[in-house]
Design a protein that fits this description.
Layout lengths: L2 H22 L35 E3 L6 H9 L5 H8 L11 E3 L3 H8 L6 H26 L11 H21 L10 H18 L9 H21 L4
């Protein structure tokens, strides 16, 4: 067989195969894939001003004997894992906080503003500060409902609590999307975003009544929020790198 006939046969088979695939609705065509997973729609970042994020009762704490930074953060922000951004903000190490040291405890939004967050990213930290506060506010209702469920049962949250947890998850996703696009020469804070994505997933599981048998799930949300903000603070202090 001549090379011209071989080439013609090859073209004929390719053309026929393409038509057959489209005519039969074959899964080989990406546009007709039955297994495609719907993509989650990321909502716009809510508008939160710096002063809308509540500040702790005290703007500064003098570190005394027998005090620990986790309790300071629990009292100030309702989340002991806020120690990660707070220590980085104050330029301190947890095991080396000197006696009588003055630990500044501004609002989360103001903390990032004072640390030098670029004004293009500041709105994200305003939103994240409100997420921490709102989760602290809804957590008691969630835990009360959880206590009423026998071991091994499924939690059926009331509509208000479930809606709030989903709202917080969506807001975190919006924050991750906003910081996932930064202007050069800045670098994306991937570690922080990773923690917040985990927190968003955890919140969605909580809203669906999924319960960890050891009760660590609601606790993990606090940890993921705090660690994410800690990594973000290091990112800001490193010039957004």
């Amino acid at each position: 067989m001549s090379w011209s006939r071989i080439a013609f046969a090859g073209l004929f088979m390719l053309s026929g195969g393409y038509r057959k695939s489209h005519a039969s609705g074959s899964a080989t065509s990406p546009s007709h894939s039955a297994s495609a997973t719907p993509r989650q729609v990321v909502k716009p970042l809510p508008n939160v001003e710096v002063d809308e994020v509540a500040a702790p009762p005290q703007s500064m704490v003098t570190f005394k004997r027998l005090m620990n930074i986790e309790q300071v953060c629990k009292d100030a922000y309702g989340n002991s894992f806020m120690k990660y951004p707070l220590l980085a903000y104050n330029g301190m190490e947890e095991e080396r906080i000197p006696l009588n040291a003055e630990v500044k405890t501004p609002s989360i939004a103001r903390m990032f503003q004072d640390a030098g967050a670029d004004e293009r990213y500041q709105p994200v930290f305003n939103v994240l500060g409100k997420v921490v506060a709102d989760y602290h506010e809804v957590l008691p209702s969630y835990l009360d409902q959880r206590k009423a469920v026998p071991s091994g049962g499924r939690l059926d949250l009331n509509g208000e609590t479930r809606a709030k947890l989903l709202e917080l998850a969506d807001t975190l996703s919006s924050a991750c999307a906003a910081l996932g696009k930064v202007d050069p020469p800045h670098q994306v804070p991937t570690k922080a975003i990773g923690q917040w994505r985990q927190a968003a997933n955890s919140l969605r599981e909580l809203s669906n009544g999924v319960m960890d048998e050891n009760g660590y799930d609601s606790y993990m949300v606090e940890q993921q929020l705090g660690r994410g903000l800690g990594n973000a603070m290091l990112w800001v202090k490193a010039g957004h790198h």
